[in-house]
Amino acid sequence: MSTLGSLTLNAIHQGDCVALLKQIPDNSVDLIFADPPYNLQLNGELTRPNQTKVDAVDDEWDKFASMEIYDAFTNDWLKECHRVLKNTGSIWVIGTYHNIFRVGASLQDLGFWMLNDVVWIKSNPMPNFKGTRFNNAHETMLWAAKSEKSKYTFHYHSMKTMNDDLQMRSDWFIPICQGEERIKVNGQKAHSTQKPEELLYRVILSTSNVGDVVLDPFSGSGTTAAVAKKLGRNFIAFERESFYIDVANNRLKEIVPIKDNLLEYKVEVKKPKVPFINLIDKGFVHVGDFIFSKDQIHQALIQADSSIESNGFVGSIHKVSAQLLGKESNNGWTFWYVKRNHKMVSIDDVREEFAKKYLK
Q1: Which of these, 131, 222, 296, 304, is most buried using a 10 Å CB contact count?
Q2: What's the confidence (pLDDT) of residue 192?
């Protein structure tokens, strides 16, 4: 059984988060997702126009006697998170307008380096029944590294692929928990602020690696642990209430991890740095050979200095392809092909052949 300090990995531990954090060694956690009490300070019951009661957040764990006490609580747990976080790690904290700005100030005061604020836009928010304010349809997540110099994990290309080959933006449209995803006990919500798995899926997939340790200081219904398990990460979670721990553990029993081969970040793999001259030197292509565009409309002659010539224009594989396309720049590796056994083969694939043989 693996441990982190004196605590068992892949388990939910009962107790105060600050006391439990103190049992974790320095610089040992790869990713933290924190969903702390929001300190909503609700006074009285919230009712709909038909006088039925709204199932809002009025739990005792969300109540603090003053802002000063809440700020001290925030500083205490964030200080420990800063200590246990690796220099290569990052932290996410989610909140609403009630608390997120105070949390943000503590993050910066403690030395965390802000990377983004990501807005979770709820596609199906709870209405504002009193009609006295705008409909509160989002929550804010602060994403920060341990310091300005941290080399944190971020799978940019995978997130771009997830977003139909457009950069993943900082506004995420995700519905709140509903239907079968909403955990209920005896017909009632098990936890008033259960987060959707889709939200944690993006967070964990984008900013951690398989086998990393993901920490959740406020486990609640166990969404972070459940998604971490599904994505092949180790998790360690803290929760004070035994009821929520039972809910989360029952949930974890049902999670089937995704197979390792499906968790590889294949779109993140960088092409090997192989100058075109290397392919010539090792005989993968030859001086005096022609290379072609895929449609064979264009061709170029390979020169001894690894430049190529096409229609009187001489330059690198990149500059010549850009010239032929009327562009300022272009990737020559994907533009040019060689003929092998009457088939067109991309010189990008030829580069892979070279790398496998000589760059082990």
Answers
A1: 222
A2: 78
